Amino acid sequence: IENKQYIRARDELLKNNEVDIAEILEEVLEKLDVESTIIVFRMLPKDVAVEVFSYLPSEDQVEIIHGITDREISYIIKELDFDDKIDVLEELPANLVDKILEKTPKEERKLINTFLNYPENSAGSLMTPDYISLQDNMTVGEALAYIKKEGMDSETVYTCYVKEKGRKLEGIVSLRSLVINDEDVKISELMGTDYVYVNVYDDQEEVSEAFKKYGFLAIPVVDKEHRLVGIITVDDILDVIEEETTEDIERMAGVMDDSDTEYLDMSVLRHVRNRLPWLFILMCSYIITGGIIGSFEATLSQVICLVAYMPMLMGTGGNSGSQSATLIIRSLALDDIDFSDIGRVIWKEFRVSLIIGIVLSTLNFIRICWLEPGGAGTGPGPGGWGYGPMIATTVCGSMLLIVIAAKIIGSVLPMVAKRIGIDPALMATPMISSLTDMVSVVTYMLLATALVL
Amino acid sequence: IENKQYIRARDELLKNNEVDIAEILEEVLEKLDVESTIIVFRMLPKDVAVEVFSYLPSEDQVEIIHGITDREISYIIKELDFDDKIDVLEELPANLVDKILEKTPKEERKLINTFLNYPENSAGSLMTPDYISLQDNMTVGEALAYIKKEGMDSETVYTCYVKEKGRKLEGIVSLRSLVINDEDVKISELMGTDYVYVNVYDDQEEVSEAFKKYGFLAIPVVDKEHRLVGIITVDDILDVIEEETTEDIERMAGVMDDSDTEYLDMSVLRHVRNRLPWLFILMCSYIITGGIIGSFEATLSQVICLVAYMPMLMGTGGNSGSQSATLIIRSLALDDIDFSDIGRVIWKEFRVSLIIGIVLSTLNFIRICWLEPGGAGTGPGPGGWGYGPMIATTVCGSMLLIVIAAKIIGSVLPMVAKRIGIDPALMATPMISSLTDMVSVVTYMLLATALVL
């Protein structure tokens, strides 16, 4: 559609929801060039443009900002909701921010500066100061009239906040109860005082926990003196939950990533920096495993076919361990279990792994004894009839022990990590599998030395 | 507190938010017995009891249902919000459900039966029929009066739905715009008609995507004839997002779990059933890897110290692959990339893995040549000075190739899986690591045979 037929394109666009327009613009930016995106963007009606702008990813916002006039920038910044405004300003280069701030009224400039100073990922950086605040001596009628006047600019009108004179938060009242009750009822009779709140410096993870637990539409943010400084609404929290989940999942795979840049937008060097540290640490742990194998070379060189079973034992150990680790990490994250449950967890994992170990060992024993009576498969190894059953016993005995050990390591390690204040997600798959590999090799080699030789 | 001082306990409890009371009751149930929990529960004021009940996990709800009188059950069921009611009824045994349904009015019984028939995890199973429906010829004043009358029983009053005579959904209007506008404005002027909706049979994952994308407080659910049958509110979606994430994470670790039972509440056999299938499949794949090693026994038995480096190569390959797989799976889940990006993904992964591979290989080469000139560590292996550099070259060359292969397999496989309609999460760590192990062994052994011998 985009071959210079901009007007038709615009009319097509305008049939969509703002979120979808933003998505289409993103694609245009990716597939065509910045110029045509900016042309399309500038052709949107002003109010739609502001909405669309707020839904674009921050890199695209910066590109567009560079392509439009200062007057257009001021208009967009002025019309954005306060929390979106802060997000945009955080991403922009400092000189541009200064230019924009020059043009905003003094009052608002002060407020923006305060907000820009909250640490990233704190409740303060998520909140907006655009909420409805009422007094407890108002009547429902007065409150509704006030909301009618102020409601357009407020992030939400569905939860209103009652403040006492010192700006301290006294209680909350929902628009529902205002609408349901009669005009002359006092706010003080309706407001709830057992509200849940968060502190400005609380981490966004705690904020999203509160939303998940209580199912609120908005939560008040207070400072040290319990003064209401802003609110956070549930739509902003959905993004936070997604971000936190991504972080957890990536950590579990040994990727360190503290930005929320999309995969394709991240530079190659950045990818390397995110992934190399863990790969290096884990590689070092495998040097130890290698050393252990080295010390058993005598055993190995006598019965070389033992080597063929090594990947299976190490692999199964690693997979068993990471299953347990993943379940435990997730349960810890959801607060389903805590450190005091460690005994029950170990007992459960022990029984689970005993059954799994026995099943897998038995299957293996049958396979090795019947299908490969001479030892390891197709190879011309030195193992003859004499070794067969002994090797089968070694492999299967190791399998059982390894599965049990792996599952117990996999469940205990994340719990201990959480206890001593390390993120349990770091104890996931890569960590567990390099540890269980070590255990696997030792178990297997010791058993082999004892049984086969 | 719970040693028979129930009255004091109750007074303590009532100082808390209902969500927190539910949590305390859960703990009581876990640490003491069902009887005392029920005593405490029955001492709560009726309205609090209903709220608390709705926040309890379903197993605990069933236990409490069994401990209280039929009259108390009917009261609770009657007072619960419609969607919570459905959730409870879904968990209860059939005879109890029949008993409860007998006592509910005919009209509602019909509605309940319809809702119980929607497939689990569909939009229909999440929705509630308690919404505010308006007509487009109403004025704002009439609408507010209607909300005042009906608003108490509605799940949300903040988004109202405008239906035409055939029960078809015409548009939506927010309570905000009702409150902001004057009494005599017609609803038809205020309502938005470009609303987003879901179908009753849509999967809950699609519903939660819509919430994440548009940031709604509620979404309308329509049937095939575009008739409004219910709404889903954002607080119910937070639970869904959590559930879906858990499912994804567990799948990525090779755990098949289609229930949302907590870790400790699941039986040992259930745990075994969830974990054994993948462990077994993966074990079989390792048999192939073993076979490959077996076919290289000649090489191995000549230079036994090669074995010592095997875990490091396989482990690093597995970790590299699962890093890429995890990033790609997550990006696919968030719709950041799709199949058409496969070229760019491969090119990015190639460059990333080239750098990582060179760094890790170089470090290894230095270590092997300088620290272990004789071969593998402490072992009395047959490798002497002569083998040293050749082994180092083999190991490091393999390392580079393996990292590149692993990262490309790890990124391509999930994308292909998604393309052919398999959940990409199944292609995660265990699958990728057993595949890369195979590749690692082949690469290493071929290179070793070529270079060392």
Global mean pLDDT of chain A: 79
Distance between the termini of chain A: 76 Å
| CATH homologous superfamily title of the largest domain in chain A | SLC41 divalent cation transporters, integral membrane domain
The major sheet of chain A is characterized as:
3 strands, mixed
The gyration radius over C-alpha positions of chain A equals 31 Å
What is the tally of beta strands of chain A? 6
| Quaternary organization | homodimer
* Overall domain count of chain A: 3
CATH architecture annotation name of the largest domain in chain A: Orthogonal Bundle
Global shape of chain A: elongated
Number of helices of chain A: 21
CATH topology name of the largest domain in chain A, in short, is: Tetracycline Repressor, domain 2
Order of secondary-structure elements of chain A: HHHHHHHHHHEHEEHHEHEEHHHHHHH
Please give the most extensive interface between any two protein chains, plus how many residues each contributes: A-B, 118 and 118 residues
CATH class of the largest domain in chain A: Mainly Alpha
* pLDDT < 50 stretches of chain A: 374-386
Helical percentage of chain A: 55-70%
Give the structural class of chain A: mainly alpha
